[in-house]
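New to this. Help decode both lines:
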Amino acid sequence: MKKALLFCIIILFSFLSTNAQEGNTVFNFLSYPVSARASALGRTNISIIENDVSLIYHNPALLGPEMNMNVNLNYLFYIADIGMGSATLAKAMGERSAWGVGFNYVDYGKMIRADKDGTISGDLPAKDICGNLFFSHDLTDRLRGGIAAKFVYSPYDQYTSIGLGVDLGLSYYNKDRQFSAGLVGKNLGRQIKAYDEETTEMPWEIQFGISKGLEHAPIRFSFTAVNLNRWDYKNIQGDDQKFFTTLLDHFIFGLDFLPSDNLWIALGYNTRLGSDMKLQQGNRMAGFSIGAGLNIKAFKIGCSLAQYHPSATSFMVSLTTSLSEVKL
């Protein structure tokens, strides 16, 4: 199983590296954070090593036996009455493997249904739902592989769409040097049932990240490179960007302050978000994010603030517990 998992990951990454993402994508909600910790570090982080089961949505190789019977709930207050949530459970399989199950969704709140003449005929329901199955295995003492299988169901009023996809990830960890790295292929898949007639790709991408803790200070730096399968970006006016601007737009920077095992504080800067959402007047903090977490007995509570829309700041809250430690 170990060799088969590693072989599949290497072959798929080799194939994907020769193909660039082009055109439009569907199910773009899959690109939003499903972890308060990742959100605080700039929207995504695929390399930090923490006993936080919500991080497996960002890199399935971060799942491990140490998360046995961990349950996580997340909710993102996005904008207006739009909300995004998730629920996750992890279970160990021996000393070197683990599996998990979870779902994440978006509820777009109340929207008015009206025809082309403006005649209102009630509310228009709209949701995005993704069911996830996770598996990870320790390939060596320092290298772990992981896979997440995704089933996406998206009902918009009388229109529905279905998609299938996978995430494939690797995680490397050197505890002695406080160094870790991650490599992920995300949302590799496609619609199998379109809203109308034409099926579309999921928002797939390749990411690489590293994290390094300081030897004499409770600080850890993270660096994540995103959209490695696609170089060219255009600005919000649709114009080509300069080389250095495009290069920076592929980077996310994060910093953890870890004064104890029971407290974390994180800062992040997402260059692409910052350049997309900066307006001529205001939004000077666009691209920046912040968060903190606290461990209280068997419970871990985390929260983050980030800006994913030019007109609003989004708040995410996370609650994690281990069912094996909860005493009822």
